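pasting input
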Amino acid sequence: MTTRDYSMLGEDGRRAVETGLAAAEWYHTEVSRKVMKDLMQRNDKAAIVDTLILYGAMIALAAAGIALWPSLWSAPFWLVYGVLYGSASDSRWHECQHGTAFKTPWMNEVVYQIACFMIVRNPNTWRWSHARHHTDTYIVGRDPEIAIMRPPAFAKVIANFFGLVDSYNGWARMLLNASGRIHPEEATFVPPAEFKKVIFVARVWVVIYAATFALAYMIGSILPLMVIGLPRLYGAWHHIMTGLLQHGGLADNVTDHRLNARTVYMNPFSRFVYWNMNYHVEHHMFPMVPYHALPKLHALIKHDLPAPNPSIAHGFREMWPALKRQLHNEEYYVRRVLPASAKPYREDFHQTALGQVAGE
Amino acid sequence: MMSNWVDACSTEDIEAEDLIRFDHGGATYAIYHAPDGAFFCTAGRCTHEDIHLADGLVMGHLIECPKHNGQFDYRTGEAKRAPVCINLKTYPVKVEGDRVLIQVA
């Protein structure tokens, strides 16, 4: 059994580059150019409507929470506000980073900057880390966004349902960057020309948090922190719940997204919060398709993909036992079964990974 | 150096606001048909990572890379949106009759 080295500066990353596993050519389902061009088309309307609903709901919920504070009756409003702040910001950050949410570039940028602040991810650093995630999805030592490493650290995973690990890392990194420094791992994927921007944004954020703390101190209440900062913790559970399903328990070190990503059917509220990223295999295969066109793309290519999980609960019932097995066997993963209509996995590409499961 | 005009394709081969891939002499190119009817040519692969631009999306005078959504102005090759930082090489194009020719050397 191997022990994986997830460091961007470690042995596994070096080996992935050496063997060509890094920056490899990935499998994608065939879709005609004409159809794909239609699917890739941008429009502002869908994202403007969604954004008005999102920010409008956040303002109304925060206002109700403040009005009812400190009564327990304010709790339901904070709980929903928290999900929109601490979880919808994850999907908005993601889609706007791709530049696919809106047709108009400045709209993508504005929503991106706001979402990055709420989710505590430096907009300049994470732009580059996510590019790497798409180049080397779940390639150990190359992908800086592997949510569940092997063996899984369950305590961290569970703590993250309350945002504890990610937000601590985000705020710690913010302070480091604000002090004028760049972490050595960041430096492996952020171009040096961008360092100044990373530091500038971190300093702006520090000022915003300092003002929020100062206001809380002045009025003798944590209420300002209920609006800014704390919802990153009490509202994180939804994006962790959906985010873990993206790749959790599936293969790593493969070059076929059907083996390492999961599509899950979800309820309308979760799809709104998650901006359709439940169609995750489709998103990885064709990252230029905007979130609002993913259901169409799914209908078009599902004959070539493993059957989607029919619900979030079903996805967890598949993933959680696999994670538990990975505690004792790092090589174990759930091999998704392809329908008869699909092109088979390239056994020659994935011989090691596929052989390990088959040989169990 | 002698100029080397190569017959790349017909004007009908590329829809307006689209591109095609063209391979020649061991190199690969992207040929664009702009919305205003003009034709342009750039190197075929994104300068960020080794991804061919032919599967990308043309929006006005921008080409967006299909892998990471980086954008270039294909008229000048200028990198316009992260994660691309390095400009794309461009090549002269001329149209003779219904043929599109590119100058590759």
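fyi The mean pLDDT of chain A is 93.
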